[in-house]
Amino acid sequence: MPPVAKSADQDATRTESKPKITLYCAYVLLSSGLYKLEHFESKLVPVGIPKVRVLQVQLSRLLEKSRAQRILWLLEEVKVDYELKTYKRKNMLAPDELKQIHPLGKSPVISIESEGLSKPMVLAESGFIVEYISDHFGPGLIPKRYAEGNEGKIGGETEEWLRHRYYMHYAEGSIMILLIVALVISSQDHLIRSFRSSSSLLTCADIKNAPVPFFIKPITNGIAGRITSSFLTPNFKTHLDFLESQIATSPNGGSYLCGGDLTGADILMSFPLGAARGRAGLTQEKYPKLWAYLERLETRDAYKRAVQKIIEIEGSYDPSL
Fold first, then answer.
1. Which residues contact 177 (CB under 8 A, 6 or more apart)?
2. In a designed cystine with 17, which of 26, 55, 115, 259 is the match (CB 3.0 to 4.6 A)?
3. Is the pTM of this model over 0.90?
């Protein structure tokens, strides 16, 4: 399906003013060292596209695993400049500075300054951010909603649009939840030490690795192991089998989840699928179509530019959790 055409009204909206977009990210510092980047300036900004500057203040190595990378990719995909600010989490909680942007200390969060706004408009939640930015700066990332002759009718939506709307919610509401559970039951020593020293929350990883008497150890190991074997493993298989079939049945033989063109839903799905390679059993042998789909996402120029910015700061990029 060709990219969604832009109406004259949309073009007029895009050229009236040049709003400023700022992306705020919070992170947990688990390794020593802070990094600073003076300034990034996009060189691929077409005439008429609102200009947003990029400024990196602080970044730790853990931010390379942050879901905020998807928003960075999105902004690169729609070819706008933007300003990027990061904040260090304290005791696993949002710092006061980020809470001044959004009362929940959400990350990522975007603020938009534009003519006609008395104060910056703040957007939180990755799905909402992707929807809003796509609406105003990247309408081609949204499939056509209705089939010809079915405008406004219940059930008249295209399969591409229905899939897009579904995966905008699925990415965070279904598969990401499982990956977070897998994260907290992992046995990474540095993560466990961080949780123990900075939070009173008891996680499954704490249960599995807690310094308990040797005769209690089998019980704590058993609890964590049972969660993995009876809950995570079968659920991961169900979801990955489903996604493999979705790629195989993409509308009109397309290469993406929602058809032949990249959508905002593909951008949102990139992070959980990247994490699934390390934690959920996503391998090329078991899921060749899903593996190839993820590789297609990662070879897009905008994706590479977003990753390169992280690499220039941290030295590497690893999308796994």
1. none
2. 115
3. no
Task: Identify the burial level of 182 via C-beta atoms within 10 angstroms of its C-beta, where 0-12 means exposed, 13-18 middle and 19 or more buried.
Answer: buried
| Residue pair 282/273 in contact by the 8 Å Cβ criterion | yes
The sign of the dihedral angle between the CA atoms of 124, 127, 130, 136 is negative
Strands 20-27 and 35-40: unpaired
Question: For tokens 């079939």, what's the residue?
Answer: 245
* Pair 307, 297: CB distance under 8 Å: no
Bond from prior residue into 234 cis (ω within 30 degrees of 0): no
Q: Within the chain, what is the greatest distance between any pair of CA atoms?
A: 72
The string of pLDDT tens digits covering residues 165-222 is: 999 999 999 999 999 888 877 644 334 344 334 333 334 444 455 555 555 555 556 6
252 pLDDT exceeds 80? yes
Residue 28: phi, psi to the nearest 5? -110, 125
